[in-house]
Amino acid sequence: MASAPGLTAHLRRSWTRFDGPGRLVGVDLARALAVLGMLAAHLLDTDRVLTSDPSTWITLVNGRSSILFAVLAGVSVSLVTGGRRPPAPERRPRAAARLALRGAVLWVIGMMLVFTGVPVYVILPAYALLFVLALPFLGLRARSLFLVAAGIALVMPWIQPVLDAAPIWSGPAGDDLSAAVGWHYPFPVWIAFVLAGMGVGRLDLRRLSEQASLVLAGGSLIIVGYGGALLTAPVVTDRYARTVLTAGDHSSGLWEVIGSGGFALATIGICLLLCRTPLRWVAVPLRAVGSMPLTAYVVQLLVWALVSLELFGDTSEIVGVRESGLFFPLTIGLIIGCTAWALLVGRGPLEMFIDALVRVVVGADATTPGRPSSAASEGADVSGGVGGPR
């Protein structure tokens, strides 16, 4: 009986961390949508042409789920390094070291997932590089981050086809190198998504006006991106130009970067707005998944590998795994498991492990006197990742 008060206090702390006034629960909801979109892209038949027919809408998860998560990674980077206020110069070295170590651990976990042979393009190695590439921008404010992200988004899609054609990718070690750097999510283009997310994280995301602005800005980019693709498709005949001026999923084309980037911004804004309403409570199970995205991502790939090995004797099976109907039981299991863990234990196991490792190696994040750590106040994890199907 003596342990009951301690258990009650523990549950109260877990709930406060999960749903306390300092946490941006809308960001968790957006992460959950990215994770579930990833699951659908992996395990459902999404190879369809998007039309007004609702049965084709499942194809929206292709590409957009991973881009949403890349933008959310940038949001979390800003939240754990000061939120609206960029870290002061004296704090940046430690903040950079913490992020770099997280990236290194993500790279190791990502390569371990690659070695399972599960037929997905694991995004974690790309995330590791993106974290490192984001370090020089930690001191920038929102406006500057958005401008840099826009510049990269407009320029790099024109250069990416040249990089894709480099002889190194067709060499004997091309596939291994591609997996090691996550080239299916090419960092020269994808750093734009992370920087845009960092810009979002430097906003006051608790303000209704900022949330609505994200929806409006994202919607405008969706119109420009996908509208541009529709307008240019009939008139562009040059092969190089068609490679650039496309909104195709996972193409890193100009219109995909603009349109899907806008989709991510709008989704984050909508999630933040929804969590101002009673839907905040309805979404608790989804938010639990979004509170531990790395754990959810790794678990779903490991379950896939085990099921595929048991049923087909090969972890690289994809058609049979999809036909086995794994998506729904795995999704339900993740939602139940993550909800129970979040409410009874707290942070996800992998998120907890990485945070503990960073604290041991680098030390706790320094805080401004009288001001709580942004990591604690926002409850932001930068350890998540998603990947798309091969």
From TrEMBL:
The chain crosses the membrane at residues 21-44, 64-83, 95-114, 120-138, 145-163, 183-201, 213-233, 253-274, 286-306, 326-345. Residues 222-353 form the DUF418 domain. InterPro entries: Bact_Transport_Assoc, DUF418, HGSNAT_cat. Residues 23-213 form the Heparan-alpha-glucosaminide N-acetyltransferase catalytic domain. Residues 367-390 are annotated as: Disordered. PANTHER family: INNER MEMBRANE PROTEIN (PTHR30590:SF2). This is Heparan-alpha-glucosaminide N-acetyltransferase domain-containing protein.
